[in-house]
Amino acid sequence: MPTIKIYPHPEYCPQGAEITAPAGTSICEALLDNDINIEHACEMSCACTTCHVIVREGFNSLNEAEEGEEDLLDRAWGLEPQSRLSCQSILAQENVTIEIPKYSINHAKENH
User: Fold this and answer.
1) Composition of the chain by helix, strand, coil, percent to 5
2) Do residues 69 and 85 touch, judged by C-beta distance below 8 A?
3) What order of strands is seen across the sheet that includes strand 83-85?
4) Where does the signal peptide begin and end (predicted)?
5) 85: helix, coil or strand?
């Protein structure tokens, strides 16, 4: 099973974390399954950018981003070349390292 290393984030995982998830799982699902409650205002339907992550390692092992995801990412806070929506980023067999950006464009937090 691939491992996801998460950089420390003051709200979602202050100490950072390392979790595992089966290949074929989205990064968002893996985070939520491991009590890292990343925002996902659209319920993982690829309709917002609140689950934006930056993939620091293992970017090329993920599925390729589709046009809808790329269009949404243009609106994400802190966009970088390795940015992905975690709900659309499907794990393969390789480990990945991610950073959850400090901010999102969501003005009100969802309680999931």
Assistant:
1) 15, 20, 60
2) yes
3) 17-20, 3-6, 96-99, 52-57, 83-85
4) none
5) strand
The overall average pLDDT reported for the chain is 92
pTM as predicted: 0.92
CA distance 32 to 2: 16
Distances (CA, A) of 99 to 30, 67, 73, 84: 14, 22, 15, 11
User: For the residues of 9-71, what is the DSSP string, one character each?
Assistant: BTTTBTT-EEEE--TT-BHHHHHHHTT-----TTSSSSS-STTEEEEEE-GGGSPPPPHHHHH
Q: What does the alpha-carbon distance between residue 44 and residue 99 come to, in Å, rounded to a whole number?
A: 18
Give the length of the chain. Answer: 112
